[in-house]
Amino acid sequence: MHTPMPGQQPGPYRRRAAWRRRALGGGAIGAAGAPAGQGFREHLRLGRKGLAIGVDIGGTKVAAGVVDAEGRILAQARRSTPGNDPRAVERVIVELVEELGAGHRIWSVGIGAAGWMDLDGGTVLFSPHLAWRNEPLRDNLQRLLRRPVLLTNDADAAAWAEWRFGAGQGQNRLVCITLGTGIGGAMVMDGRLERGRFGVAGEFGHQIIMPGGHRCECGNRGCWEQYASGNALGREARELAAANSPVAQELLKAVDGDVDRITGVVVTELAKAGDPTSRELLEDVGEWLGLGLANLAAALDPGKFVIGGGLCDAGELLVGPARKAFARNLTGRGFRPAAEIELAALGPNAGLIGAADLSRVTSRMHG
Known about the structure:
- Helices cover 35% and strands 19% of the residues.
- By secondary structure, the chain is α/β, with parallel strands linked by helices.
- Strand 10 and strand 11 form a beta hairpin.
């Protein structure tokens, strides 16, 4: 089914497409698509009744979904991430949008990807998982898709989704932490995504929490993500098993004695099944998590931390120790209000939901 592009649709949307005349990411909206002020809140209240497609680009898969104005996913599709070829990734995105758009009337497309975006929201400055270096991705995709395209960081997209539809609803100062291979983060402050002066705010995983500690991929030592991530959990478990500790027998049994196969996922599953050693390892990671959150609370003073990502499959086995460590290390503890710490509500779909919703909101603002 042919889907008319914006500006050619019948009814109230019939007009020259504003997205051809101005970039979606400029002005007060910024690259993440979150304009400030009362006018923006009015646009959120009114919403756009049309549908948007959100695309979440990861190191191994590209997931896409049709999302309505209430954050509900109506249809989904995915592909494997095609290596490090930027043009091949663009082709996959186009395939997914065309596949999903064939059965729905789509207004806009939002792209969430790991990496740093410029403040205008048109260029991926750097992506750790893909060969994007100063890549004008938004313009490339708008030319191929003939629809408004919004480009944002994947952690920003997930935070936006949690603020709009998930565990962060009603918060005017929200910090979201994503725990996976590393640690990602994003902030929604007074109804807008806070991206910093240069557009690269939210790299919380690279606060140095242990000077001279484990070497991080970023080049520094002692980064938070080296102690409170899925990778950190797997590394600690492997070291314990490699020492042939008697408390590591369940870990070794789970991987048929192959230490290199022990990952954070393996440890989490054993902990959920009741293995005391795996629970102890998770507790250690949770304590590091809580310490880092206390540092962030001292700097940012949010009302709530929302914790998401794959490591959160551990649930309270992780977050319980984090809350205790947070309370123990919070500056001014006992004499100040403390932020809540809550698990994310939207799971692995948060990124595509947020990217879709941001694209809908910003296309309305510019329309």
